[in-house]
Design a protein that fits this description.
This protein is mainly α. The protein has twelve helices and four strands; from the N terminus they run ααααββαααααββααα. The chain is 45% helix and 6% strand. Strand 3 and strand 4 form a beta hairpin.
C-alpha cells in the first residue's frame, strides 16, 4: 500500500506509514512483550459474549460505549431535549436486548442464509454488469475505464501501468534519505516531490463558459446546495424553481463527469420495456 501512496502523491500517508511499517516489522525484536500481546489478540475489545465476531479496536470501543450510554436513562447529557425521545430510545434498547437474549453465541447476521444469498446475488449482479458492458480486466485489451468504457491514451496508460514501480522507487528513496541512515540526507518533514501521474480522471472534458469577458471552467461543487440555502435566507428564492434546473455542468442522469454518454445495460432496458407489454396468443394475419 505504501508505494501506491507515494505514486499518487498521498503525502501524509506516505510520510507516516513508512516509519510505522518499519516499527511494526521490528516489533518482535525491539518490543517482544508487545509483540506477544498482539499475537494474543490484545489489540481489540470484546463487548458482548453473544457475538464471537464482535471484537473491535480499542478506540472504537470507547466510541461505541459512549453511544450506548445515550440510549439508557441518565446517559450522556443533551442527548435530546425531549424526555419522550430518551425514554423511547431506552425502551427500544432494552427490547432489543430481550429479543436477542436467546441467540446462540455462534450466531452472526452475516452467517445467516438470507444474508449469504443476498451477498451472492450482489456479486453475480456485478459480474453480469461487467460482462454486459466490457471487461476491463481482459489482458488482451487496452486499459479501459470500467465506468465509461473509454480507452486510456498512451500517456495515461503508461502512467497507470508504471504507477507501482514509480511508487516503489520513491519509497526506497524516502527510506534511504530520511530513515535508514544515522545521519539522514534530508529531514523527515522536508517537502516531498510529487509525481503527478495521470489517471482516467485526466480524460474528463472541462466545460468553459464566458462570464464578464473571461472564461470560467464549470465543475461540480459539493457545497453548491449549501450556498444556495444560505442565499435563500437573505433573498426571496423559490427552491422548487431552482431545483428544477441541473446544479452541475452536466445532467448526471445522462452523462458521466468526463462528458460522455452514461452507459447502461441494454438487457435491463429491454426487460423494463417488455414488463408492461401484454403477450398475445394469436398474431394478426397478413392482409396481403
Amino acid at each position: 500500500m505504501i508505494p501506491w501512496c507515494f505514486a499518487y502523491d498521498k503525502m501524509n500517508y506516505a510520510r507516516y506509514l513508512s516509519p510505522y511499517f518499519a516499527q511494526m516489522t521490528n516489533l518482535q525484536k525491539k518490543y517482544p512483550s508487545v509483540y506477544e500481546a498482539f499475537k494474543a489478540g490484545q489489540f481489540s475489545v470484546q463487548l458482548s459474549n453473544n457475538n464471537i465476531f464482535g471484537r473491535i479496536p480499542v478506540d472504537q470501543a470507547i466510541e461505541v460505549t459512549v453511544n450506548k450510554d445515550t440510549q439508557t436513562p441518565g446517559g450522556t447529557s443533551r442527548f435530546s431535549l425531549k424526555a419522550a425521545a430518551e425514554h423511547r430510545s431506552a425502551f427500544l434498547g432494552q427490547l432489543r436486548e430481550m429479543l436477542q437474549g436467546n441467540k446462540s453465541q455462534l450466531s452472526h447476521s452475516e452467517l445467516q442464509s438470507p444474508r449469504i444469498q443476498k451477498d451472492e446475488e450482489a456479486v453475480s449482479a456485478v459480474v453480469s454488469l461487467i460482462q454486459g458492458w466490457i471487461n476491463p480486466f481482459d489482458e488482451k485489451r487496452d486499459l479501459i475505464s470500467i465506468s465509461t468504457a473509454k480507452t486510456a491514451p498512451k500517456d495515461i496508460a503508461s502512467d497507470l501501468m508504471r504507477a507501482y514501480e514509480i511508487g516503489e522507487q520513491c519509497y526506497a528513496n524516502f527510506k534511504d534519505e530520511r530513515l535508514d541512515k544515522e545521519t539522514p540526507a534530508k529531514k523527515f518533514h522536508d517537502p516531498m516531490k510529487t509525481n503527478k501521474l495521470k489517471t482516467f480522471s485526466d480524460m474528463c472534458k472541462k466545460r468553459e463558459v464566458k462570464s464578464n469577458g473571461r472564461a470560467v471552467i464549470l465543475k461540480a461543487d459539493r457545497s453548491l446546495l449549501g450556498r444556495i440555502i444560505v442565499m435563500a435566507q437573505a433573498r426571496s428564492l423559490n427552491m422548487e424553481d431552482i431545483l428544477s434546473h441541473p446544479l452541475g455542468p452536466l445532467p448526471w442522469a445522462l452523462s458521466t463527469p468526463d462528458g460522455l454518454l452514461r452507459k447502461t445495460n441494454k438487457a435491463t432496458l429491454a426487460t423494463a420495456l417488455q414488463k408492461n407489454v401484454a403477450l398475445q396468443e394469436k398474431h394478426p394475419e397478413n392482409s396481403g
